[in-house]
Design brief:
By secondary structure, the chain is α+β, with helices and mostly antiparallel strands. Helix content is about 35%, strand content about 20%.
Length: about 300
């Protein structure tokens, strides 16, 4: 987004960190003119962000930032000498939240929250978003999985899945979203060493990827579904026990079939010895094709 004023005196780095004074963090002097310029930038970028997220009203503005303890990261780009454009913004802030883990246990904690994240449409899909996010994470020495996200869009969820392998949402009783990895010990996983392509190796739990898949098959209908331990390949002892039950059941059925066949032969011999049905010929039962006669 282009503006008619020059930001070169504050845009020494591509990303500017702004606090509730509406001045860059560390800016030593009072500068009403600069505050007015930054206010203009925040208001227009906030409106653009609200439209992109289909919100009823912007969640970022100069007035809202002034009346809070939030921090806003503003990304700029120099297109020509002395000419800068604003590429995107990222608003962060601490909040006390009641959080539920996947077991339903509730805890109260101060959590660093992602409140607004927007990259201008003319700069999307060029790596600006991950660059801005990485800058914020390093500045706060925090990992992406430790964040709570305020009302994320599906595009933002896809972004977190692609770059940080975060996909397993934990339902909360508020508008914030956290992931299962939030409750892990920070020493268990270092996001700075993560392979971001690994995000594609696991399916997310949101959008179309979160739909349950049908597991029924004709074998399960005819012969019954195997226990979950056998299907998942968990536990060698369970596999052996299941196979023993299968073999025992098969042997019992075979024993009953053989015993019944012997009894039929004995009964047939007695009938022939008595002479009562000597003129009758019993058709030979073809067990191999017996099942076809039932249909």
């Amino acid at each position: 987004m282009e503006f008619q004023f020059d930001l070169s005196h504050i845009a020494h780095d591509q990303i500017i960190k702004i606090d509730n004074s509406l001045l860059p963090v560390g800016y030593q002097k009072d500068d009403p003119e600069l505050q007015m310029k930054i206010s203009n930038v925040l208001d227009k970028m906030g409106i653009a962000s609200g439209i992109a997220q289909e919100l009823k009203s912007p969640i970022t503005s100069a007035e809202k930032l002034r009346n809070s303890d939030h921090i806003l990261y503003l990304m700029t780009e120099q297109t020509s000498p002395g000419h800068f454009v604003v590429v995107g913004l990222l608003k962060m802030g601490w909040k006390k939240l009641y959080l539920f883990n996947k077991k339903g246990s509730r805890t109260e904690a101060m959590v660093y929250c992602l409140l607004d994240f927007y990259i201008h449409e003319t700069r999307q899909r060029h790596g600006y978003g991950i660059k801005l996010m990485d800058y914020m994470l390093k500045d706060n020495q925090i990992q992406a999985r430790q964040l709570a996200v305020d009302q994320p869009t599906n595009k933002l969820l896809q972004f977190l899945w692609k770059y940080f392998n975060l996909s397993k949402l934990v339902n909360q009783g508020n508008n914030f979203v956290i992931f299962e990895e939030f409750f892990e010990n920070p020493s268990d996983k270092d996001s700075t060493n993560d392979d971001r392509s690994s995000g594609y190796k696991s399916q997310p739990t949101f959008g179309r990827h979160g739909a349950a898949r049908q597991q029924d098959c004709m074998a399960n209908i005819l012969y019954g579904e195997k226990p979950a331990e056998i299907q998942n390949g968990n536990g060698n002892a369970n596999k052996v026990e299941y196979q023993q039950r299968e073999n025992k059941q098969h042997n019992e059925e075979r024993h009953v079939e053989v015993q019944h066949h012997v009894e039929v032969q004995q009964h047939h011999s007695m009938d022939e010895g008595d002479g009562q049905k000597s003129n009758q010929t019993h058709p030979k039962l073809d067990l191999k094709n017996f099942h076809t006669q039932l249909w």
